[in-house]
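User: Please predict structures.

Assistant: First:
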Amino acid sequence: MLRRFIVLSAALALSAGTAFAASAAPMAHAASTPSAINPGGIAHLIGPTAQVAGGIHEEESSNWSGYAVTGGTYSSVSASWVQPAGTCSRGDQYSAFWVGIDGFSSSTVEQTGSEVDCVGRTAEYYAWWEMYPGGSNNYSNVVKAGDHFTASVVWDGGDNFTLNIADTTQGWSQSNKQTLGSTPARSSAEVITEAPCCTNSGGILPLTDFGTVNYTGSTANGTAIGSGSGLEQIYIADSEGRTEDTTSSLTSGENFSNTWVRDN
């Protein structure tokens, strides 16, 4: 399924750069049908911050879970994960897995990742990139449950970024140079599981039952994400405060998991 997107009226206009493939795999095709879903975007935080062990801040969000580091200026972020299988039983549901710079406390996000969507009882898998607030774009490469992904976002100077993603199981990779069109804050770097946005009314979409996704080698500025200051441990909750997934503690400062609890 082509990912469709909605650009919020408050969003800044972007000037998209030209993407190019790092392998002979087919190039991306842009998703262009408006008013349905957007896999990326800024964090929507709920309620006060809690302090947990080791000075980590725990954050409740309606759309992000995972880890963000916010105590510096960020030039790179990277992580690896295994694409989880979606358990699809009813309705349409969505789960995205990605790395990115910005978005925790700024208005842009430069990001790339994978996804599993449920279309009724059918699970659909794909990889994508986004320079939010611009819309997301799908890669046409094959993605299956159990595929091993490695992804990174690298700031190239000015408002230029390189978005890298590789599916080592399927044997393809993409390296995608993009221009944001505005000055990036570079105030956070994150490794995130997301309940994408949006319905026509702007609401967060139901979270696909992805079981558990394990992230390894999570780094920011070339060092373990847990070694930085301003570390935020995030989990998803619905509008009634019910937990939708959980985020484990970090091991070795760079490995963690998200586990699905409910769709919303």
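Second:
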Amino acid sequence: MNAIYVWGVARAAGGRVLLRIEDHDRLRCRPQFEAAILEDLDWLGFVPDAGRDPLVRQRDAGAAYTEALGVLDGAARLYACDCSRQRIGGEHYDGRCRERSLPRDSGHGLRVRLDADMVHADDMLLGPLDQRPAEQSGDVLVRDRNGHWTYQFAVTVDDFRQDVTLVIRGADLTASTGRQVALARLLGRTRPPVFLHHPLLVGPEGRKLSKSAGDTGVRDLRARGVPPEVVVGTAAAAVGLLERPRPWAASEVAEFFTGP
């Protein structure tokens, strides 16, 4: 589903599609997962305009993330934190380690002190997004206790350094927008990207479809002999881009977003 929106909106707007492997989590990411993503995109017919030669991977961007960390440190925004997810007990971090002056060594995460300001962003589907990340999530974790860069930090740095002007992703990430815009501003980005948070494919009970939950994936459909055009058309119909499922080529998805 995400590929339909990414390629469709980008093509309709005359933009370029960048391919980036977000493998910041070294514990869960495997080379075979990356290979499967690339094979699925090729089979479906979604060809990026940039990012395959060389392939952009977050695991190779440590120097860029370290440099960005230095910018935050220079602004006196960083502090060490020893809180586990269990100790925090939810989505919001209450800043309990702000004044503890913990050492920034192995075993401690690093957080960024956020202001209480309202953060504004524009969403092509949802309209204006006004969020207060300090109230939603609290100070953002940028490096965890194992030394791994976090999603929120890595994608913010990458979007800035790659000059990404439109971020297209699932609606489940809408709440991340404010904290990423706030982080980007602290890193020196004066104009945030425009966002588009698209509907998700869900099961009968309303749960987001996920391969990890045992739901059928592209590779399974491919193995069953389902043509790629049928996969694209079925997914498009599931979120209302088509009135009913029918074969649709990946090269034609821009038509969903060009109007009558």
